[in-house]
Amino acid sequence: MFCRNFKEFKETTCQHGLDSPFNLDCQGVDIAIYDQVPAEVELEWDTVVKDSSVFLQTKYFHALGVEHTKIRYTFATFHQADKLIGVAAFHITIAETTDLGANLRNRFVRSAIGHLTRRARLKFKVLVLGNSFATGDHGFRFVEGVDTVTCIAALNSAVEKIQEREKERGNRISAVVVKDFYPSHFVLSDRFTDVGYSEFFVDPNMVMPINQSWVTFEDYLGALTTKYRTKAKSAMKKSEALTLVDLTSDDIDTYHDDLFRLYDQVYERADFKLGKLEARAFFDLKRQLKQCFFLKGYLLEGKLVGFQSGFFYNNVLDAHFVGIDYAYNQSHAIYQRMLYEYIREAIRMKTRQVIFGRTAMEIKSTVGAFPVDMKCYIRHRKKAPNALLKLLFGYIKPSDFEQRVAFKQKELETLQIQ
User: At a CB cut-off of 8 Å and minimum separation 6, what does 65 contact?
Assistant: First the structure.
């Protein structure tokens, strides 16, 4: 496993008795729920998070406010003996899918679900513990020494408090989704099943290790087999008419409409959606995060035909939103060029890996990425529908794809692949 983005928790679960589902004892932990992180709490919050996830830092919340997304944030803090021991960030959003049956194992179940969802989009309100826009464990952090059961019990209590508050506001939440966990954290995350959640695997996160001996992009090319080095050079040649520019805050203002148009082209192709970003968000992300966030534009004869964005944190490059004018994608290899530019940026910044996310898995493997299993959890607010969800999500499987191995055997022996 490449990413170990949050603290390992001290396992003392054998010392605790588990109550019935939907109820674990978190006595001694005071929980507060907020619509935004109070100013007086921000410093302590960031101390708990440290640099483990930019998506949990308060400067990120300031940049990606409710006016920039189709989601609402809700925050929770956990205190024990007046000490802040944990924090959590939730999204309240509309989950939308046009093809719920696409990743179901059983063909009869897949056919039935497909028949139900073919005629209309399926929409439902969800509470997400995690980040709807990013792949990875970006939902919560607890200080070192907090045991697993206390952690899960506190989070479960926060979920129930938020659901009750939203119900009083007239915003009933249908289901709760907890996302995304790497294999090294399954021991922790699997305890969500003790409070009524059903686990399911999603498409893997495609992650590429960066050899710390690489100094230039040419060093990376030299590590590829002949086939994939030729493929990379072909993409570079097809895209040589493109002008790449690092977009400043002023540039983002200038290209605002084009950024939204390109982002929307990619967004509308997604089968499953958890909220939508407004183009103005890029301006505030750049203003708040400065060098931790980059936005690169692709110009063809002065016209913006693509963009890519990413975050630097915890010695990784996290590839984020892209926008593509598909009329030029094939002829100018825009998406392929973006993948190589992420690698170039990672080498330049001396990060140890690129987190590519879970889409277009096969093409990402052709540039050197490898799949890392990811697990999520879901729970309906009512027991009967929750039992149905458990049955349904038991059939969900990750998408099939052919994993390519782009590196020479000698290079594979030096890369930190697990």
Answer: 284
